[in-house]
């Protein structure tokens, strides 16, 4: 595909969701796709999630925007704002 073809496809896409089993490379695909689009001067915006670990244990997830801002999404031991229950 040439850059104009890519741009036409991207202009039609209003969102992208990627789900599958743990460790398959979903976050890597999103990051690399955004890098390619940005390198072709195609504007991107949004976020992805990344797991947080202490040693080998997953303790939660962070939300990372495509501008690089990072905030906690969920952590073990935190209390749900929806149910009031500990996660």
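-> sequence recovered:
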């Amino acid at each position: 595909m040439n850059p104009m073809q890519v741009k036409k496809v991207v202009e039609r896409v209003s969102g992208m969701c990627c789900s599958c089993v743990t460790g398959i490379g979903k976050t890597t695909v999103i990051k690399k796709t955004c890098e390619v689009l940005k390198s072709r001067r195609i504007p991107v915006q949004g976020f992805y999630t990344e797991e947080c670990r202490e040693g080998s244990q997953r303790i939660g997830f962070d939300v990372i925007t495509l501008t690089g801002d990072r905030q906690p999404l969920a952590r073990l031991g935190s209390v749900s704002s929806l149910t009031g229950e500990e996660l």
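The chain has two helices and three strands.
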